[in-house]
Amino acid sequence: MDTWRSSGAFSEPAPVRLVDRGAKPEGTVLNVLGVHVGGHEVVIMAGPCAVESPEQLLTTAQAVKSSGASVLRGGAFKPRTSPYSFQGLKEEGLEMLAWVRQETGLPVVTEVMDTRQVDAVCRHADIVQVGSRHMHDYTLLEEVGMCGKPVLLKRGMSATLEELLLAAEYVLKQGNEDVMLCERGIRTFEHSTRNTLDLNAVPMLKKRSHLPVIVDPSHGTGHWWMVPWMSKAAVAVGADGLLVEVHCNPQEALSDGPQSLRPDKFCSMMTELREVAQAVGRQISEPRAVAD
Amino acid sequence: MDTWRSSGAFSEPAPVRLVDRGAKPEGTVLNVLGVHVGGHEVVIMAGPCAVESPEQLLTTAQAVKSSGASVLRGGAFKPRTSPYSFQGLKEEGLEMLAWVRQETGLPVVTEVMDTRQVDAVCRHADIVQVGSRHMHDYTLLEEVGMCGKPVLLKRGMSATLEELLLAAEYVLKQGNEDVMLCERGIRTFEHSTRNTLDLNAVPMLKKRSHLPVIVDPSHGTGHWWMVPWMSKAAVAVGADGLLVEVHCNPQEALSDGPQSLRPDKFCSMMTELREVAQAVGRQISEPRAVAD
Amino acid sequence: MDTWRSSGAFSEPAPVRLVDRGAKPEGTVLNVLGVHVGGHEVVIMAGPCAVESPEQLLTTAQAVKSSGASVLRGGAFKPRTSPYSFQGLKEEGLEMLAWVRQETGLPVVTEVMDTRQVDAVCRHADIVQVGSRHMHDYTLLEEVGMCGKPVLLKRGMSATLEELLLAAEYVLKQGNEDVMLCERGIRTFEHSTRNTLDLNAVPMLKKRSHLPVIVDPSHGTGHWWMVPWMSKAAVAVGADGLLVEVHCNPQEALSDGPQSLRPDKFCSMMTELREVAQAVGRQISEPRAVAD
Amino acid sequence: MDTWRSSGAFSEPAPVRLVDRGAKPEGTVLNVLGVHVGGHEVVIMAGPCAVESPEQLLTTAQAVKSSGASVLRGGAFKPRTSPYSFQGLKEEGLEMLAWVRQETGLPVVTEVMDTRQVDAVCRHADIVQVGSRHMHDYTLLEEVGMCGKPVLLKRGMSATLEELLLAAEYVLKQGNEDVMLCERGIRTFEHSTRNTLDLNAVPMLKKRSHLPVIVDPSHGTGHWWMVPWMSKAAVAVGADGLLVEVHCNPQEALSDGPQSLRPDKFCSMMTELREVAQAVGRQISEPRAVAD
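Output (structure tokens, whole complex):
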């Protein structure tokens, strides 16, 4: 056996990979309760960074839906750099998401941080998010690979595109083919922005893989006023969807306030995005009813 | 005198800076022989990486002009990582640029690498380019600040946006206000692309400074097939111009072949760019005649 | 409540932190079965990247002990970038570690990748390692904070020192004060080495925190022939210990062969390290018997 | 002709390179007025960041000489990020260096920033420094390659080791074989230190090339209190010399005060370095008289 070949961190990948474009040249289109990701339409997922209260979540969800978002985002389990920061409402937050999902008909994407949370998150979420800090958490990837729900996999802060694809391979290998890759900015020496949004990733991932590619301009910039600009760029460069932080009152947000759009700004951004989508031969997805 | 304040590498900048948006809130619009950079129109500068021969340059210039480029790029002095790579045709290359400029009426942008070359380059160029490797070459910046020609200043490979602005300040401080800032990709851990094109830089630079911002998707990706994608993103994000490498026969190019577009690909890209420009309320500049 | 202050990614840490030097100016000295980490002696932890078989582990353990290593390292759960690489022997590997620990009297450090493995790992390990890919896995950090065993916490591939300290704070906050910080190289643009070993981290962490600092020159370089050089540098710069990969037959190693020292090279390195330790007023710890 | 091969930025280097270890397996030892760099002894070059006045320079030179430095450093031409920072005393500074060189007998290393300064700098300096901002300034490298004086070439802020070697090749190709390579820290995401001192560079450069390797712990950390720690590490890892900023009154320094050692700290560091040098089989060079 050629064990040497398989030993290095940068060793050759297996010749046939589930994640490769060659494995499915026509591309993967996910169906999330009638919202199609990876096809002609560009899907906007919006909502608060963290679920804070039923009112906060419902108000924001209604606002983003009325502007044209077709998926609701919101964190119940929040990975925070400091143990003294707000850590999310956890199970309680999941229940708020479930309630607002019923009220608005919007499918829900929310993050899972631990293998022991996978069951609970899957009961309430339509899309399970694996965050940047967990892209390399291979045990978790295997677990969500068996959970039966679509997965939104965010690129690690310093993960190469090849490593992102191999992380997705962990999920696909368990039989779950419904994976979306998400570019959310990488860590570089430039500190005027929170991260450096690597839009090169979009055409490169689309070329190499059949999986849909989502862009998160909120974490990719760290500044709400930059989000509309980078969202237009993301649509122009071929992203299949956006993940955008919107908060009714960013100055009171328990996390990521500085990068959250107010609903009115989000609404005018959506108008602009429709123009750009059309210019590149696509269109922004409209919200659909949940077929629950 | 508070010498300590002025001593650190990261010391506070002077309170009033020529480069800041506040110094000229309406924005700078350069006039390069009738081509306006920084206004409503998006200016496409295209041509080969290096000037290789009169025929190569003329053919490429005519091709990019017929597709709608309004400025010709081409390097006579080539900074190359290895001393064994082609170093450019130097003065001879400048003369070829001057001849093709006459033939086509396209203004010319070309790089200067050394203070002793500034006079010669200025005699033939309409825009003097300071490349990434020389963004920190302050003596050269002062010299081009006195040369009387517009300057295209490329961001260093690992320069922060603040450092790019301070480099521009060196030029402006000499009395030359006609400076364009150019994002061309930064060096990161990601190696599937030659550089990481930092499109965050465009809105951030536009907010902080009144100077026009140009994007170079060729160096920013290193792959010709990515150039149309990133060009569309750059126009969507508010760039005032693009700097694109085009070569009639990329496989024979003496430098940067892998990232050079063939003229037919450049032509179809221009059609797409016109759509995106319109979607964001701008339009692609058309070539003008040289008023020589 | 000033929620804004607590909302940003770069928000101010709480004024009093358990991890800070100020909380314990005299420094923390851990006692791992009689091996003291953080005091006068420099502790060498050595062994294979992965546990592969009882023979491989025992042979290597005896070799490193005879050269003067006082802790045995070896991975049972292996986080691998590709799902097609060897993933470790898991529970079986833990049992081999327990057996060799008995045979040699060496305390054992091994990695835990998932909250559900913490109990099993703690039953067999004397030091629980949280790897680079899991430094941001805050649920896991809280779990090991409650496990009652000393923790070796590796810096994430692109984690700042501040983020490493905050990750340690998650552990300390659960009441576990026995944490070692481990510099193992960061991800940069330089690719001739696997990572860039950031030895600046050692004095900076020692100044900011009372916790012992360990250096991993194997991952920090990726080349076995560099390990003795960087180990000498690490001892000179004040590291409290080293974590070194040693394999009896690196060419057959199931992981990290290229960066593993052969026992004879490890032995000659230990001789050199004793000289350097003495030059900086310290000494290399000698192996002790397990008081089981 | 295979032009494609020679065209890319990452193209293969020429098969035989002057800079490679294979071109001179025994290693290069430079003789700078009797100070040998690259041999058994480790050479300490110390002095102020910038030449500020004859008194400042003489006092500092005498202090570092009495502590055992054998080369005097000091900048007359200062590349500064901001045009509003102190730019050096230029020609006047060179004359001060010449005077102090006479007074103390210490050979002098000072930076050149522009091809037009090479003659003047060479008249006064014993070693011509090409700084990080100019490592990619190939015209300047060619010029110093013809100047007849030893060259200290600093690694660019984001230059790979391969690029540093190719920059040195520009100098050697002009017939100047007396080149020292200098690691001075690279730019990364970590901002608690000014740069990340990449000590991996020392063994890697020594393996690949026959040229001596110098380490600059002052720029590599940005904090004076870290300089003794990183200097010990640099000696332990095999550096052939150090370049250290020392200032009699750092709080009044016109540049780099925060990273400058006071003479008393430098003196106690030298004592420690002698111990470490001996532990790795070398010794610190003692100052010699100028044979002028």
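Residues 28-284 of chain A form a domain with the TIM Barrel fold (CATH 3.20.20.70).
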